[in-house]
Amino acid sequence: MAEYHPVLKSVLDSWRSAGPQGDVNIPGIVSHLATYHDLEITAVAVRDQATHNGLFVEMAYRGVIGSEAPLHVDVVAAARGARLPCRNGWTFTKFIHSVRGGSDSIIANVMASVMGPESLISRIVVSPSPALSAPIAAAMGGESLINIIADYLMGSGIPCPAMFEEARQHFPAGVDLSFIDSPNFRAQMLTWAISGTPYLPKALGNIKIFRSFIMLVDDNDTIYLGGQPHSLLP
Predict the structure, then answer these.
(1) What pTM was estimated for this model as a whole?
(2) How far is CA 156 from the centre of its chain?
């Protein structure tokens, strides 16, 4: 859920944390209920534990699967088709159970590609002007801009914990910072910022989809934080 539906995970976390007596009039929850359930937030203001738990499950189901019930004729037909045996008795269900990592691994490899540093670097095309390339190379001992970006993406963790604490409040709730030490975190965040999702559809194959324009600005440039100057670097 954290990798494929981070925004939904944030909504579900907020719902679970609120509990049956808590205030759920939170923008993410309000938007989710209106989009997937056609409900006003006032409709769920009063609820007991059973109702709260039931809505949690339904929110997760509709956010990932859709509004059709599990016993809808199309869902049932798809499930039966997945269980049809081959001549030797082999089924798709057995295939899933035999793959290392199970269904999560199947989804990651068939439906989408979770971005890691190597796969992202191969898709980035950086074409800085000569006026920008020369000063960067001179300042970085001959390193090119793409090499600087690659070195950053290959790293992990928080380079400067003190300054990160100052910046933490500006991260959206959907960004799960508990994964910040994972080797794929930086690549997934850049992918998310560019494409709107932390993963890329597998169907895109090896197409060079990233032709990113990277603008280098001063640390207190007004391009940050909606036009408000804000320095986080020395």
Answers:
(1) 0.47
(2) 17
